[in-house]
Design a protein that fits this description.
The chain contains nine helices and nine strands. The chain is α+β, with helices and mostly antiparallel strands. The strands form two sheets. A six-stranded antiparallel beta sheet has the order 6-5-4-9-8-7, sandwiched between helices. Strands 1-3-2 form a three-stranded antiparallel beta sheet.
Length: 273
């Protein structure tokens, strides 16, 4: 099938010489379908996109050949394969990209700083963060590292290790006392990590720095393995321990679930077809 309509790959009007007008038109055809217009006739598509009937027909039949559109001969509708176009973007997103909007909503809801970190050796490494106010003597940025044994996110990540991995960690990691509250005995840390596994969150009270309280929850993959930790940090003068448990933990868990769901969505592209 041919069309007498020019199929210019370049277009003036402020666009560069690289501009492919036929791609723009093909995407316009896909966007013509929506909740109010789930199936369209050839005339409908031409009207909604501003294309001639001949051009609209050519694009629709090409999309049908590619599996993105189905037709009964008169009406056209999108297929589930169109989802691949969106999931291709989602599947390329990294943990920080997925987590960042959840941290922004979390911090806006509780008016406290929030972060996501992963375990690297004996340290937690910050990979995403929203800072509401500075509550530590040191500035925290992406890439900042802290000893895992003295942080709420570290306790979450250590609690997610296998027994053999935890044994290896304790065999080579000195549990330095950073404040008078820091857990420095391996047996005590093991007991705390078991508590974390049972309750599903970790609350650390001034173990990393005096005046700093933080609470963390796990972020798990589809298999249930802990792949990251998310936390909320606050100053001890602002919130007591029980207030943190009652007010912050529910928000924290909801954010963790949101990140998990979005991470799972990024993986589903491989199962579409």
């Amino acid at each position: 099938m041919t069309s007498t309509e020019p199929d210019n790959t370049n277009d003036d009007g402020g666009r560069g010489a690289h501009y492919v007008q036929s791609l723009e038109r093909g995407l316009a055809v896909i966007r013509a379908f929506d909740a109010e217009h789930p199936d369209l006739t050839l005339s409908d598509v031409a009207r909604l996109t501003g294309l001639t009937r001949a051009a609209a027909r050519r694009f629709l039949l090409t999309l049908t050949d590619l599996g993105y559109v189905r037709t009964d001969g008169k009406r056209f509708s999108l297929t589930a394969k169109v989802l691949e176009l969106g999931y291709a973007y989602l599947s390329s997103m990294t943990l920080p990209e997925v987590a960042q909007p959840h941290l922004e909503r979390l911090s806006a809801a509780v008016h406290e700083s929030s972060s996501v970190s992963v375990l690297d050796g004996s340290d937690v490494v910050y990979v995403a963060r929203v800072a509401v106010s500075r509550i530590m003597t040191v500035s925290i940025n992406i890439g900042t590292r802290f000893p895992a044994h003295a942080t709420s996110m570290g306790h979450i990540l250590l609690a997610g290790l296998t027994p053999e991995e935890l044994d290896g960690y304790l065999a080579v990691t000195p549990l330095a006392g950073l404040t008078s509250n820091t857990v420095t005995e391996p047996a005590q840390l093991r007991a705390e990590l078991e508590k974390v596994r049972v309750q599903g969150y970790s609350l650390v009270d001034q173990e990393l720095e005096a005046g700093l309280r933080s609470v963390a929850a796990p972020v798990r993959d589809n298999a249930g393995a802990v792949i990251a930790a998310i936390n909320i940090s606050t100053h001890a003068s602002r919130r007591g321990v029980e207030e943190i448990r009652g007010d912050l933990v529910p928000h924290l868990r909801a954010a963790a679930r949101g990140i998990e769901q979005d991470l799972a969505a990024t993986r589903r592209v491989t199962r579409l077809g």
